[in-house]
Amino acid sequence: MAQPVTQEQLIQDPHPIYAKLREDAPVSPMQMMTFSGRGWVVTGYAEAREAFTHPALSRDGNKYFGALDTGLDERVRAAMNHHMLNSDPPDHTRLRRMVVKVFTARRIAALAPRITEIATELLDAVKPGEPVDIIDAFGFPLPIRVICELLGIPSRDQDAFREWSNVIVAGAFAGDKLPVAAKAMTDYIHELLARKRTNPADDLLSDLIAVRDEGDALTEDELTSMVFLLLIAGHETTVNLIGNGLYLLLTHPDQLDRLRADRDLVPSAIEEVLRYEGPLRSALPRFATADLELGGVTISHGDIVMISPLAANRDSDRFDDAETFDVGRGHTQHVAFGHGLHFCLGAPLARLEGKIALELILERFGTLELATELDQLVWRPSGLMRGLAALPVSVTLAA
Ligand code: HEM
């Protein structure tokens, strides 16, 4: 009989495990750490797309969170979970519409010069000739500074955010630290909201406080949850886009050379990083509100379904040479940003940050090499994310 897969194996090397599952059954039963009911994992591309839009698969965690043992007290849970990614229409429609009013394409595009400035400042501190952890020096601080500035979080508080969101993303792996970090972050956001109410500034948070939809404002819990969502969705994922992107280029030197020779390929390379080694391993739960058929299996009312974008994006029924990392592949309708109603609201920002980060790195560093053995690299323990804990590199400046 086949050996059961351990969490550790799934974190360090998920692809062969997902490939086997996809081959055997694109929707397979799985055991969940924090859910006692029946769980499923979706590893096929067509099945993932269907699950994203299935009317009997709900995204409303609040209705089901009673069944998940998160160890959080009620006040913190309410403040963390009333956001659009935890809701179905009509609530989802209202919440998303309110954010879209202030988180506009124009606002995102206008961030480009500031993102370039922050990225340049961070790269200035990377010394040629000395091994440096490029995730710690660049991949982490860039997106957190961008999202904090966008929201209007003072720079002195950004380190605390990094700390809390690290713990929150680790989820069940963080043990006792999770409720402490979640409470600290909730208290901080409440204080920040109070300050912005009396002293509005030119930032997204002040705009979110002021935004009205048919006369309705966001409630305190909805605002707090929105900040949680934007901060965590907005930076933990982008860190991994940058980190995984650099890791892939370092381990595929022919693709790095190709990109150096043709910088116009950068947007296509970003899409390929998202497809091939995207930031989210399996973070996308859906709750069955009725019995349904998916990928040839019967899912029962009350089951939980986890969609794995990482697995779906390597499905050879959808992608030619799915196991080949090809920076010229272009846009492929990968599902790294999801699909349907909950399609990532921050995708344009993530793409912009990824593009600026990669362009600056290519421009500045003549060589970029891994400063450790491949088998020494460690992937961060998380039920959700796919990202390296550290990526030591050594660089030389371009001539
Ligand atoms: C939703 C991925 C960056 C904000 C999602 C979803 C995915 C995703 C897969 C859908 C989840 C589901 O259907 O269950 C990513 C990736 C990113 C990224 C891979 C980086 C490479 C960002 C950024 C922001 C952001 C930078 C904000 C500034 C959101 C929000 C939602 C969302 C608000 C919820 C949308 C809704 O429920 O309607 N993201 N994201 N994301 N993302 Fe992102």
TrEMBL record:
Gene3D superfamilies to which the protein is assigned, alphabetical: Cytochrome P450
Keyword Signal: no
Transmembrane intervals: none
Pfam entry (one): p450
Keywords per UniProt: Heme, Iron, Metal-binding, Monooxygenase, Oxidoreductase
UniProt family annotation: Belongs to the cytochrome P450 family.
Protein name: Cytochrome P450
Provenance organism: Fodinicola feengrottensis
